[in-house]
Amino acid sequence: MSLWLFIQSLIDGLLMGGIYSIMAIGLTLIFGVMGIINFAQGALMMLGMYVTYWAFTLAGIDPYLSLPLSAIALFILGALIQKGVLERVMDAPDHNILLITFGIMMIIENTALVLFSPDFRSITVPWLSETIKMGDYVVSKPKLIAFFISMSVALLLYWFLQKSYLGKAIRGTANNKIGAALVGIKSKRINYITFGLGAAIAAIAGSLMTPIISISPSIGHTFILKTFVVVVLGGLGNVLGAFVGGLIIGVSEALAGAAFSGTLNELVIYVIFVLILIFRPKGIFGGGS
Amino acid sequence: MKKKWVLIGLLLVFLFTFPLYSTNYLLHIGIITLMFAFASQAWNIISGYSGQFSFGHAAFFGVGAYTSTVLLVEYNVNPWIGMFIGAIIAAAIAFVLGFLTFRYKLKGAYFSLTTLAFAEILRVFVKNTDFFRKTMGIMIPLDINPFWYQFQTRVGYYYTILILTIIITVIVYLISRSRLGFNLIAIRENEDAAQSLGVRTFKNKMIAITLSGGLTAFAGTFYAQYLLFVKPETVFASDISVSILMPAIVGGVGTVAGPIVGSFIVTPLGELTSQMFSNLAGTNLIAYGVIIIIIILFMPEGVVGRYHDWVNRRKKGNKETQEQKESVTS
Amino acid sequence: MTLLKLEHVTKRFAGLVAVNDVSFSVDKGEIVGIIGPNGAGKTTLFHTISGYHVADEGVIEYKRKNIRGLKPEIICEHGIARTFQIVQPFGNLTLLENVIVGAFNRHKKYSEAKAVAMEMLEFVGMKKRADVRMKDLTFPEQKKVELARALATEPELLFLDEIMSGLNPTEVQEMIEIIKEIRDRGITIMFIEHLMAAVMSLSERIIVMHHGEVLAIGKPEEVKENPAVIEAYLGGAV
Lengths: 289, 330, 238
Known about the structure:
The complex is a heterotrimer.
Chain A: H1 3-34, H2 41-59, H3 63-84, H4 94-116, H5 126-129, E1 131-134, E2 137-140, H6 141-163, H7 165-175, H8 177-182, H9 187-209, H10 219-234, H11 239-259, H12 266-279
Antiparallel strand pairs in A: 1-2
Helix pairs in contact in A: 1-6, 1-9, 1-10, 1-11, 2-3, 2-4, 2-9, 2-10, 3-9, 6-7, 6-9, 7-9, 10-11, 10-12, 11-12
Chain B: H1 2-21, H2 24-49, H3 58-75, H4 79-102, H5 108-127, E1 138-139, H6 154-176, H7 179-189, H8 191-196, H9 201-227, E2 229-230, H10 232-235, H11 238-251, H12 258-276, H13 283-298, H14 302-329
Antiparallel strand pairs in B: 1-2
Chain C: E1 2-13, E2 16-27, E3 31-35, H1 42-49, E4 57-62, E5 65-66, H2 72-78, E6 80-82, H3 95-103, H4 110-123, H5 139-152, E7 157-161, H6 169-184, E8 188-192, H7 196-202, E9 205-210, E10 213-218, H8 220-225, H9 227-233
Parallel strand pairs in C: 3-8, 3-9, 6-7, 7-8
Antiparallel strand pairs in C: 1-2, 1-4, 4-5, 9-10
């Protein structure tokens, strides 16, 4: 690999890594507060993609304008899933909750398959199609924008969790459910908001990726595994770990993509996963909030 | 107790005579139903009994299918032998997977996602490897002869899978009454308590996953010989994993009868849904998703578990009324 | 004969010393009570001996073999059984099945394990309800089954962690009789208990813990009059 290719891949990987970071933050946030691994996270992301896709294709709405739309729509859907289904099994054994989210994933994915067909679709947004040249290196516009929006979302979320009353309540619930209930935090409502937020973040990630990659109903499947690898790398429930983990995975994937040909580079993510399981199964930064 | 054996006898008579009055299409549904009952029974060992939920049993299924097929096509190894070699390889993979995830007492979700990832790893690996003919898949040359695991009609396949299913059910029944079975259930119910009673949690989980993975491979070989064709997108797909876990969940995880009863409910349902909406792929999986949620919400112990509960309550009820009578007469 | 010997055992959690330089030994056939205020490190001590925690320092010897660092299940195989402060039932299993899990520790055959389990259920007076699911029992009943389950592993040394908490006076009396009978069967017993009357009437020796340290060891009457114990345990209120 030449130095040029190395640096070019590094740039691409870092930019994509930002999106992985927020995906992972969404997953780890839900886990931290409710102890649930949400299998449906990738499927929710895929819905976010289709919101942006259809808004652009049918109404010509710019992807970044439909982004709030997809975030709000998925926030509502997420809160509804929590209220309608998950809330009833919060005290059930872990594996039952896991199965429920797995079932939700199957329903969402396959409904999308029936409605949208398995075809791969992509959008071409004129003002995004030209690339930015930085010396010898090329930066794609939508990737750059996605990176900055991702970073902003991560910072905003950090601020929200640290400073706002609601954010503090969410963190309180994550640390100590009973304690939080004693000081009057309504944990049910916290759970709706947390799951909604997780879904909204997934939707943002999805919308940001729509101008970059081809989308299909089963795309969430690959992403939930990727996101899980990121989360495990950063330590389950660790928001900062998820952030850094996302960047690491993004870069590793891009470098591997440059080094190996064909679709075999899909394997890289799993090789990393197995290595983590062997050497650092509790993540680089350990668990916790 | 007696009633149970009568019920089992009747079921066996029905299953053995089924080809006599079944249509060819019904026979196909019967074969698929038994095949997933078999695989679900294997899944039951690690997931039902010890509570470690696998979402990636397609990994072992696919290894079984590919091993016997490659051995046959490339090295002319008889599939009846290839079937056992496939099981050994699948068991070895299961062993590695178990070792990676069970060494630390990680949360159950780790295991679930790791199994999912392992199935994906194998799928991506196979579809990128020339030796496995990539995405094209491998055709098994026609050579109709039971000696080569190929039958003239579906009846032969039906009896093959029926006997395999009976064997695995007997195995699981024996496990359920053995030390291993009790140890696994104890691990599922409360790992700390199990340890305090001398249950070697790591060792037992390792035995369970290895056994489960190895046995699942038999279903894979059967599937390959039934269709005479394997392809990464079918045998390693998550649809297979889902079809394997569904019967046990619907029928009752950690029960001997659960996977069988569950498969008879859910596999024909899935088959019919996909038949009915044959132009729309995925409808059967929507149905499966809905069924999973309904079962977990309203009947987490499954159909068989619910039946046991009902019987127990009736027994208790009878006893109480009897006691009341006795107290009245005395 | 010395069955269990601890020498300078220390267990720390993130800077907090939960068990500090604890040394004592227990002879075969003894009943030893452990008392001390909440947070004195009693349960941590049990966890450390039975393998749920690994001691940071010190030696734990059982029958002259070092058992420090062994896993709980291996320690159980060596002959140490325990109950938990908060009951840890196999909720979906029947009482019989719960106890069978314990009985499989020494017996390989189902029929043998079942016979042992039945015997143990009878011993704690729960045989009649053998087919009831554990989760359908009351808390005191679950404690009895947990005791039967531990006994079914056929231990030589038994740890009981606050087995009488939550029991009413009649049930406490029953439990005291059960414990005496266990001792008469030749099983050595160590128990943590807050109920003073029970501790005084059962224990041959008492270990008093305070702030993770052993404050005093001795016969009940000696301990009762030890000024340091009165000071620490009763806060000088006597």
